[in-house]
Amino acid sequence: MSHHSNIPAFNHRFLPWILMAPQLLVTLVFFIWPAGQAVWQSFLVEDAFGLSTEFVWFENYAQIFTDSRYYHTLWTTIIFSAGVTLMSMGVSLLLAVMADQVVRGAQVYKTLLIWPYAVAPAVAGVLWLFMFHPTVGVLAYMLDTIGIEWNHFLDGDQALLLVIIAAAWKQISYNFLFFLAGLQAIPQSLHEAAAIDGAGPGRRFFTITFPLLSPTTFFLLVVNVVYAFFDTFGIIHAVTKGGPGDSTRTLVYNVFDDGFVGLDLGGSAAQSVVLMVLVGLMTVVQFRFVERKVQY
């Protein structure tokens, strides 16, 4: 008799499904069903009261892709997402490297750096709005003293910069947590060996630390791009409402504004489908091309 026979075999066919059920249900109800609805709605034209609907095939899509404002919004979204991703990842990596060096009171630093993640997007937006307010803002006043006139209510580029700062600040804590965990997983002996070989701190960072952080960095790149595309609606809505002009209208803000304010439900649904496809494509591209450079 083999010594393996008394181990109970995992042969229950339904158990995996039962264990997965809550997660699958959430995905189905909150993601797949609404996504399906959006796809269906994107082929319809409805009046604002929902009394009459007309099936119009790709008319809504044709309208999007012939609209120069839509391309402007797309371009704004790309600049915004790149800005948020670079700023939040750069700053959080710097903070993580610095926090990793701290020996005394490290917990205090870590806690303080993680706190902003608990702030709601709209609140984060309003915080920065107050600091940069042209008349009462403390940062606007400081800029004024060095001769920079700050007024994001009139200047579109400044408004875009402001929402990028607010959105990046909100995401720094999340990135910081992962970068710090990644740094702490790197064996100290590697750094010591490099230091003995005469590599300075900068050289050590770029030849040892950063390559070993590449799985973490790649993961955060995907997360941050998705965050910038989707989760920043609250910040933009609270700070600029897409203005001045259309300078801070991103794709996700456009979906809301056209759908819930302009009541163009079909057009808004078509935009959300385009947005889903776009983010899906970007994620695939990141996995196909960026992940190859990742060293696990």
From TrEMBL:
The complex is composed of two ATP-binding proteins (UgpC), two transmembrane proteins (UgpA and UgpE) and a solute-binding protein (UgpB). Belongs to the binding-protein-dependent transport system permease family. UgpAE subfamily. The keyword Cell membrane applies. It is a multi-pass membrane protein. This is sn-glycerol-3-phosphate transport system permease protein UgpA. The lineage of its organism: Bacteria, Pseudomonadati, Pseudomonadota, Gammaproteobacteria, Oceanospirillales. It is found in: Cell inner membrane; Cell membrane. The chain crosses the membrane at residues 14-33, 74-99, 111-132, 159-183, 204-230, 269-290. GO terms for cellular component: plasma membrane. NCBIfam families: PRK10561.1 (NF007852). Residues 74-286 form the ABC transmembrane type-1 domain. It comes from Marinobacterium lacunae. PANTHER family: BLL4140 PROTEIN, SN-GLYCEROL-3-PHOSPHATE TRANSPORT SYSTEM PERMEASE PROTEIN UGPA.
